[in-house]
Amino acid sequence: MTTGKGRKDLPTMMDVARTAGVSKSTVSRAFTQPGMLGAETVARILEIASSIGYVPNHTARALSTGRYGNVALVVPDVANPFFPPLIRAAQMEADRSDFCVFLGNSDESWRQEDKLVDRFLSQVEGLVLCASRLTDERIRAHALKRPLVLVNRDVEGIPRVLIDSAIGVREAIAHLAELGHKHIVYISGPASSWSNQQRRAAVRLGARQHRLEVSIVAARVPSYESGRAVVPDILATGATAAIAFDDLTAQGIMTGLADRGVSVPADFSIVGCDDVLGAATYPSLTTVSNRSDETGRAAMSLLLDMLGSRAVGDARVTLDTYLVVRNTTAPPRR
Amino acid sequence: MTTGKGRKDLPTMMDVARTAGVSKSTVSRAFTQPGMLGAETVARILEIASSIGYVPNHTARALSTGRYGNVALVVPDVANPFFPPLIRAAQMEADRSDFCVFLGNSDESWRQEDKLVDRFLSQVEGLVLCASRLTDERIRAHALKRPLVLVNRDVEGIPRVLIDSAIGVREAIAHLAELGHKHIVYISGPASSWSNQQRRAAVRLGARQHRLEVSIVAARVPSYESGRAVVPDILATGATAAIAFDDLTAQGIMTGLADRGVSVPADFSIVGCDDVLGAATYPSLTTVSNRSDETGRAAMSLLLDMLGSRAVGDARVTLDTYLVVRNTTAPPRR
DNA sequence: CTATCGAATGCAACCGGTTGCACGTCAATC
DNA sequence: GATTGACGTGCAACCGGTTGCATTCGATAG
């Protein structure tokens, strides 16, 4: 118990009650059910409360009501530019309903994610897990304890918001085929990533339809560095075009190719995913675009709906994607 | 009271106590002061706890100890690329001490920021406010209630971590002067931003020292769009080089100039601030670089120190900056 | 054989709110 | 004038932990 220490003890309901000459209960009601009290009583209490700087204690309230007024948002990597717009939108959506948002960075690790979720569980009403690295089993276990919404992870029975890259990837393959490419390579992302699996599958399928040869090169972590690192592997495949798991990886690849004197798009074509770099790269990147902010908003909104009424069954929202052709794709060199 | 509803009631300490045949207190101690109990008792309790999926309730613990185990991090705009690395680093630093992090997006508005802080106050042990838009007075008022650390805001008596752009800006001016520029323009950011004030002052000072004429053009919000929007104003000044409040603004300006057929750096030189775009722009942006991640880590670390021992007086940490010369600066056209 | 002591555990109050129920008051009703 | 009901408020239990103090018990000392 840390009474003492001085200044850091906020005024409590009892303080207000005492100076107002009423009981705790009355003060409580003045805030939560003012209609139940005499009008002038309420006025007097609110007056006194604000004068001594009283704000109801969120924690105490949460404990007795079970309504925490908090939600958690967990992402693999805050600094991955795909997430900030999503985080921002989710945060603002939660804010509209007066919810506070915990942010967790799982650092691409399922252990870390599991730890965070456990830590959040007892102080939130629900959580949004983005691109979760957990097993289906763990996700289901957590979902049993608290309402849960997934982003870019498809677990049956758990509400989820999915960015359907398949559409955009299909467009990308068609685009490359049309340019005359015969052999492409997919640079994969984290193995446990649903997006990665979906994109890889879409590449395979599209390639078959267009009768293209397809190779796979693995970049474990989606980042500039790992993109740069896999360039030798990419060149070794003999492909003339690459579709990268995301824009960061694509950007790294571009640098790596430039280092080796391979010019884009003249010698090699590249397509990214996520469209997080805008037209900032040079050459500007052809990429599969999506609305990550809308994804965040939708996921949070879905979660809040669940908290309001238990009426969300097996929601599965998908948002579509589309190819944005810029300047990293061209016909293959003959 | 929401007992019922079924599955959403987490197991409590009493549940564990009952099946272990001990009292609440003993279970509590098994988690917080295991040395006080018999070794086998602790083992049995932990065993049972994990088997029924018990996790101590963060909220209840916070209420009785006053140690919330939470901190808040408030930024003006999560999606501004300056912040994600900072947020990430702060988050991970907090995590090392088992703290959970609330994230607030003030949306560049002091009202929103004030609201968020109030909402956080009663459930965190301390807060980090980044580039706060609040008045000194409000900041001081909040600091009275909870330990507070500021980032890029200099209020005496409140611990703060500052990125000292002055150094890098000075280098930038020297660089431009050396190239032969005589008239430069500073594109300012949010008026209430400390960074902006500091940068503007540094530009003025540096320009005087190098006998350069200096104009100021205001871009209210730091973003690509507003950079693009102020290009006419910039050209109207007759300057031959610009230093922008941040890289986003600089990038917008580059696009705006390109739209008008002004070529960079041949016709016009540009320097950004923050170095958040890496070498991704074209031409790659000359900019004043800093370590925003280190800033986040330092601020959170400082806050945690304050929580541990009250021994942080009037801390004022500054991190320095340096000019990174890339390809948007060149001698002025004669 | 008893006094003493330390280790292990239980009891109960407390943190700051919420809420079902009981109580008192006053006006309308019979 | 006694009954009734609505209204405004207080009492006390409860949410799920923590912790000072009391209690129990076996072991060691006298």
How would you sum up this structure, described in words?
In chain A, strands 2-1-3-4-5-11 form a six-stranded parallel sheet, with helices on both faces. Chain A has a six-stranded mixed sheet with strand order 7-6-8-9-10-12, sandwiched between helices. With 334 residues, chain A is α/β, with parallel strands linked by helices. Chain A has helices at 13-20, 24-32, 39-51, 58-65, 83-96, 110-121, 136-145, 165-179, 194-209, 224-229, 231-237, 247-259, 292-308; strands spanning 70-75, 100-105, 126-130, 148-151, 160-164, 183-188, 213-218, 241-244, 269-274, 286-289, 316-320, 322-324. Residues 1-7 of chain A have low confidence and may be disordered. Helix content of chain A is 44%, strand content 18%. The longest helix of chain A is centred in the C-terminal third of the chain and has 17 residues, at 292-308. In chain A, helix 12 links the parallel strand 8 and strand 9. Chain A is elongated and about 90 Å long. Chain A has 13 helices and twelve strands. Chains A and B meet through helix 4, helix 5, strand 2, helix 6 and helix 7 of A and helix 4, helix 5, strand 2 and helix 6 of B. The structure holds a DNA duplex (30 and 30 nucleotides).
